[in-house]
Write a structure and sequence with these properties.
Elements lengths: L9 E10 L2 E7 L2 E6 L20 E10 L4 E5 L7 H7 L6 E10 L2 E7 L2 E6 L21 E10 L4 E5 L1 H6 L17 E5 L2 E8 L2 E6 L11
Length: about 220
């Protein structure tokens, strides 16, 4: 068997048997391999019969050859283009999209961005105004929402999302002042280690900590 087949070989075969966990394929020359249900398609498959029937001719790739156990592992999925990867490569962090809430868990909500492609909207990224105990406090399954792409992890196949309100709130403040520059502003907070003053910057105000203050005179 090891002399006839190598990992990476692409072969034609015929489906001989279908089980819950996968399907068996006749490769000819008295060789039979198995396609696990997870290797049938990039899309989620509940049962192999959703994609193939006994007697179908299919193309497979050899992904495992175990001579001692006389087992041949096959894949149909690896011969297909990967719609998730194709979609994710076109995304950009910061892009706003529409999606459909498909699942809700304690830690967040899954949002369908395209067929069979979901992103995770973490519970902390849903509201900019309040802390939620559960995503269902504001969201429900089937709801259309706008989301902003926060991060993309191609290796782990994960897309992180935020609502536009949270994304706006988390935008970093652009600091335009320079060391040694004279600035003025109202005191917003006094701490043992110094004071905070509000400085008007482009896009709004920001509290900047002043250097440690000694004595009673505050150089504002």
């Amino acid at each position: 068997m090891g002399d006839k087949l190598r990992v990476g070989d692409r072969l034609q075969g015929k489906v001989t048997e279908i089980r819950n966990f996968g399907l068996f394929v006749d490769l000819g020359d008295s060789l039979e391999g198995m396609v696990h249900v997870s290797e049938i398609s990039h899309q989620r498959v509940q049962h192999p019969s959703e994609k193939v029937s006994v007697g179908d001719a299919i193309e497979v790739e050899v992904i495992k050859v175990d001579v001692e156990k006389a087992q041949i592992g096959l894949s149909m999925r690896r011969l297909e283009s990967d719609p998730w990867a194709d979609f994710a490569r076109e995304l950009e962090v910061g892009k706003t999209m529409s999606g459909l809430v498909s699942r809700i868990e304690q830690f967040g909500a899954f949002v369908t961005l395209a067929p069979s492609i979901e992103g995770l909207l973490h519970v902390s990224g849903i509201s900019a105004e309040q802390r939620l105990d559960h995503p269902s406090d504001l969201l429900e399954i089937g709801q259309d929402i706008e989301v902003v792409i926060e991060k993309i992890d191609l290796d782990k196949r994960r897309i992180g999302l935020l609502t536009p309100a949270v994304a706006e709130k988390r935008k970093p403040v652009e600091i335009t002042v320079e060391e040694g520059q004279l600035i003025k502003g109202p005191v917003t907070r006094v701490e043992r280690f110094g004071v905070f003053i509000e400085v008007q910057l482009d896009g709004g105000g920001a509290d900047l900590p002043q250097d440690r203050v000694r004595g009673q005179n505050l150089p504002l």
